Every structure is written in structure tokens, then in C-alpha cells.
């Protein structure tokens, strides 16, 4: 395959059952990846390739006074130093953000303002990576500094509501929280915080930009090829047809790659200047600033229940930091609007702008942080009410989404509670905290509810019968490492009753039919539904061709009597009568054998509240003297509609749980309160779990049939795994030690501090 052709992947031969939906088809991209032949954005090579280094601001607020580029330009191999002072002017100043996730407020060297430490302020392009890095080091930047606003508490005075919270109103209110609060038997008032975190997929962001006349091609690590195309054409003043974005493989994304950030446009600008292809790889330390983060949240709760353990009041007020250049809200309170039955609920979201990088979607944005706070508060109130935390949740189970005023399309949360508790042995929990000890170790059990919306967007797809009887399936969606290559192969194989090895799949390219952002856990539901529909259409189309073709043995058969089985069209009640796809293809020109669809969510989409649910049970061991926390055991039960691939689906859920543990106990970007620089912008000091930190995780998939969710019956599994886990761990730590830690991550020192 040369750099400019679209990648086609076909599964190795496997048993027919593996290709069915729900089967455990192994990754069709596995062999390429294992052999090092899967090419990611930075692996592509073009003649005349040059290398770019992104240069970042070293102050958090102010103006660029001057940048001395002379030594950099004199360095051997340096081809271009692009700064505000010489960068080409873009139409509309390049700052008018289009709606996320397709585009964000970018820093494209169009003005001299500095809004945060780490903001892109220059790009150095050279013959080699080494020369571009050295050139970047040789820049002399002078700033007119201004005092940055980095104090969350001080800036809270100017907090403002966002325009929306992930498509919903930022504030909500039902019933009368004040009245219910004043009459309640049990009350909890508590504040929880979650820290600044940065996405660190194994593959950092990377872009290769190449111009051919007025045509721009980008090889980009992205969750949204069509969104990158839109952003690039808008920012550079091009027609959409002038831009192509290619992204066959992505080495992890998690929301950070849902938006096209500054470096993508800067690479294209630089390539136009040097008139050669430019490769720009974001360095690991650069992942901590100009490409999004999960913002710090402060979540204030008032939660009350009556004497029977029924929730009577819930108030969830969220303050989250954002940048000074763009409002982006972590919508942590959305889950409080529906997760439990409660008549009196008030939620608010407020933004606290600081001189920091723009925050963004990070795996289960809102639910991951919000479920930590809500599930901690539920645990605290259960204890106060003298109820087992699981029993407390059962009593407050909601059969109806009172936030949206909609019935659930399906909900199997009670079964998740039951099956998870059973497998975990929850009934053995001693209700008294700090009462279970094994030697020097305090043992704690904790649990929490998990949930994530089941969303779907319109997607297109194309299917073509090839002369050799293979079917080419094309869809401009993406595989972030999540298994899309495999899953879509499986959907097509299942629908066409072909072995997976006869599906030739193409994804990850704007030359392919439009698909939405691969975010929000909706790729299977969106692109999967399009592939499902296009395969159904192809089958009908081929049957139609056969029955109207005098040369076909099926000529004249009513097409409701035609079925496609094992590569043959045949008459349902006379299976011997029929023909193979190859023989049909041999008689028809290519143009006849291609179908296109645009699959949109049906009318049911608006009539139901659609969510996945789950229950997470955790055991923790805490060293009584040293506060060291170990997690020996996690059991999690999920109801996610149909699980489409038993192998990749399991991996997705496990990955989410691991990240939940990481959120609970490890991750924390430390920002210098004076200068706004991230002090641990590397994977040595930004803590993440290693294998030794991860226990055996038992997954239970609760079967669920959801007739309203889409043709595949799948709810999406990318994000629910992270939700609930941090809450369950915090609750288990409390149960083990009697210490309630309300600020993540829970560390040794926070625990020892709480013991004093
Ligand atoms: Mo996800 S945070 O929508 O990639």
C-alpha cells in the first residue's frame, strides 16, 4: 500500500461462528500490529518529508514582545521558524471556533496574546527532527508578562454558567429542595473534588501534512477524520473538497483526539510555507497543555433521606475550571438528574476561567467525575441512615428518568446489583467500618453504580460486491484501538452470512462515506448501524439483480423467497436452486453492485432515555500503619444491550475499570500555582497504575434485550467502565479505615493526614 491509498483490511480465516455478532472474533488488525506493519500517523513517509517542533509559551499570561529567530534560522537544516510575527494571516483571524468536537478555539499564531503556559507560540521546521528541536531551543522569546489567574477559589467569584452542558441545560430543578432538606431525617452536606488530569494515549498526537497544489492531505491521529477536514478547511479558507484526512490506526484517544487542536492546523500552515510535507509529533510533555485535559472539579452536595431510607433532596453544584479562551464544561451533575428516584433535585454547573489550557472530553466526561461524587455521597448517607449501601441504592432505584421525563429504553440495573453482589460475596460485609482486619491490613468492601448514556448519530456507509465474491465495506469511521476494524467486519459478515475473511473493510479516511466522531461510546451504534443497513440493502439489491436476470437460475423467483447463505443466493424453500455471489458478479458491471446508505436514529430515539448501567464491587486492603492502598479484587456487572464482540468488548470494559482505578488512586496533574506550568508533565511523575497495581477483575455481562436502541441492540461500552469505579474504591477505603477521603486521588498522604 502506498501512502495515499485507503487501507483495506480483511480478517484472517476463522471459524464461521467467530464472525457472528456476539462471537469472539480476534482483531482483524492484530497481525498487522503484531508485525509492526500497522502505520499510525507519524509512520507515514513521503518524499521530501520535513520535521516540525511545536514551541510553547513559558509564561501563563501576557503578550509576545519579540522572538529572536536568528540563531534558530542559522542552525544547519532549519527551514522555517514560524511565529506570530511572520505567520501567514488566516481568514477570520483563525479564532472563531466552530462547534466542538469538530473545532476548538485554537492558537494559530494570529495574535500576540498568551493565555496559558504551554500555548503554542511557534513552529520550527527542519530537515531532521534533531535540527528542528535544536532550532526550537535556540529561539529567544521576550514577553510582556501579566499576572496570571491561577487561583480557583479567588476566580470562583467570577464563575459563570456555560451555555450548555453536553447538550442539556446547565442547571436543572424539580420539586423543592429547600423544603425537603429542612424536613429530612438524614442529611449530608459534603464537597468532593477531582483533580486536573491529562490524557496520555500511548500514541501522542501526530500530524503529517502534505500539499499537492491546492490539495491538502493530512495523516492525523484523530477520532474524527471528517471533523478535522471541516476544521482545516474553515481555518485555512479552503473548500471542503480540497482537504483529505487519513487515519487508519490510532494508538488510543479517549476524547483528546476528538477535536483538531492547534498543532494540526499549524502543521498544514508550515507545510504550505516550506512547500514540502511536514510531520509534527506532539511530544509527551506537550500532551500536558495544548491538547486538552480533564479539568479540576469541585462538587458540592446536599443529600437527604427520610426515615425509610428514601431520598428526599439532592443538590449537586459543580464548579469546574476552564481556560480564558474557551468555555468547556465537565458536566458532572448530569447523572444526578436521573440516577436515583428523588422528587426534589437541583443541579448547577459553573465555569471558573483560569490561565490554563482548554479542557476537553476525557473518557466519560461528566459521568466519571460526577459518579465519584454522587456515589460517595450515597455511601455516606447510607451509613448515616443505618442502611447497607447496596440496599440504600435498591430502595432508591429509578424506574423512570425523571430528569428527561422519559421511560428507559431498557434498564437492568437491579440485575447488575444482584449478580455483582452475589459473585463478590457482598453479604459477608460487616457493616461497621474499620472492623475487618487481617494482620496489619484493614479490609474494606465498597460498591457504586455505573452508568453512561447510549448515544447514536447518523452515519453513512457503502457496500460493493467485488468480482471475486468478497464484499467491500466502506465507512469513514475510526478505530482508536477499540476494535472498530473487527466489529464492523463482524457486523458485515453476520448480516451477509459470509465468513469474516470475505469482508474487505475500509475505514479511517475522509474519502469514505461520512461517519460521526468516534466519541461518546457511539461508534458501534452509529457506524455499526450504517454497516448493518448497507449490508441489508446490498442483499436486497443482489436478490433483485438475480431475479430480474434471465441468465440467473433465480430468474422470476419472488424476491421475498431469496436468501443469502454461505456466499450463495438461493431460493428459501428450494436451497439447491441458486448461484454464488461470484457468478452473479461475473455478469454485472461494478456500478450495479454498489449500494450506499445514510442510517439515522429512528423515531424511538426521542421517546426513551437510553443508558447503560452497571454495578462495581471492590475490595481494598489498607496498611494500618502506612496507609498503603492495594486493590486485590474488583467484580463488575454491566448491562449494555447486546455485547457485539465478546473479546474486544471485554477488553473495552476492563480498560475502563483500570482507568477508574487510576483515577481513584493515581492520576493528578500538578500545576504550579504561581506560574501555571504542569510540574509532572511526564509519565515518570504523572502516576498511572502498572500491572502489579491491577487485580483480577471479574466481569459479568447481564443479558439485555433493548428493542429501541438501534438495529444491533448495542448500547456502547467505551466509557461506562470508568464510571463508578473511583466511588466504589473511595467507599471501600472508608469501610476499611473509617476515613472518608473526598478528594481524588486517594493517596497515602491523604489517608495518613485524615488519620490525624
Ligand atoms: Mo470520548 S471522552 O467521547 O472519546
Brief sketch in words of this structure:
With 756 residues, this protein is α+β, with helices and mostly antiparallel strands. Helix content is 23%, strand content 24%.
Write structural notes for this entry.
The termini are far apart. The radius of gyration is 27 Å and the shape is globular. By secondary structure, the protein is an alpha+beta fold. 56% of the residues are buried. Strands 4-6-2-13-10-11-12 form a seven-stranded mixed β-sheet, with helices on both faces. Strand 17 (400-401) and strand 18 form a beta hairpin. The longest helix has 25 residues, at 523-547. The protein is built from 16 helices and 30 strands. Helix 8 (367-384) packs parallel to helix 15. The structure holds dioxothiomolybdenum(VI) ion (MOS). Dioxothiomolybdenum(VI) ion binds at residues 223, 253-255, 258, 361-363, 365, 519-520. InterPro entries: Ald_Oxase/Xan_DH_a/b (IPR000674), Ald_Oxase/Xan_DH_a/b_sf (IPR036856), Ald_Oxase/xanthine_DH-like (IPR016208), AldOxase/xan_DH_MoCoBD1 (IPR008274), AldOxase/xan_DH_MoCoBD2 (IPR046867), AldOxase/xan_DH_Mopterin-bd_sf (IPR037165). Residues 35-147 form the Aldehyde oxidase/xanthine dehydrogenase a/b hammerhead domain. It comes from Azohydromonas lata. This is Xanthine dehydrogenase family protein molybdopterin-binding subunit. Residues 156-180 are annotated as: Disordered.
